[in-house]
Amino acid sequence: MGNPLQLKSLNHISLVCKSLEKSVDFYANVLGFVPIKRPTSLNFNGAWLFNYGIGIHLLQSDDPEGMTKNPDINPKDNHISFQCESMGAVEKKLQEMKIEYVKNRVEENGINVDQLFFHDPDGSMIEICNCDNIPIVPLSENKVWSCSRFNCNISNRQQEHQIQQMIPM
C-alpha cells in the first residue's frame, strides 16, 4: 500500500456551474469559502475559492442550459463532505437560509454520525457532518486514525512509537 504517488493532501475540487456568480455567492456565503486570485493565463471563465485547507475551482459551463439538475437530494450521490463543529447550528442556519436538506444518521458500534445533505445552485451535493466521531480504521493495518487534528496527532505519536520499536538498535 503505502503512498505510491507521494500524495500530501487534497488540493482542490473543480465544479462546472451554470452561473458562476450564483455559485461563488453560495460557496462564499453559505460554506465560508474565500475567493482568491486565479492565474491570468486561464483563458476561460471561472473562480477559485479557498478555506479549510482546500480549494474549490468553479468553472463556467460552456452549455449552462444543457446542464440538468436532479431535484432529489440523495445521500448516496456524489458529494463533497465537510466536518462541522455543531450539527444543530448548521441545521438552524440552513433553515434560516431556506436551503432544503435531508438528514441522515450513521451508527457504528454505538457511535453516531449525523449528516445533512443539500445541493449547491448547480445541483452538486454537499454533506455537512460530524464524521469525526467514527475512527478511521484501515482494513489492512493495525492502526486507528481520526479526522480530527487532535486525534491525528495522537495517532502520529503512536505511529512514531511503533516505527521506533521496529528499528533495530
TrEMBL record:
Domain VOC, by residue range, is 9-131
Gene3D superfamilies according to UniProt: 2,3-Dihydroxybiphenyl 1,2-Dioxygenase, domain 1 (3.10.180.10)
Tell me the lineage of the source organism. Answer: Eukaryota, Viridiplantae, Streptophyta, Embryophyta, Tracheophyta
- Name of this protein: VOC domain-containing protein
Name the source organism: Pisum sativum
**Pfam families associated with the record:** Glyoxalase (PF00903)
**What domain of life does the native source organism fall in?**
Eukaryota
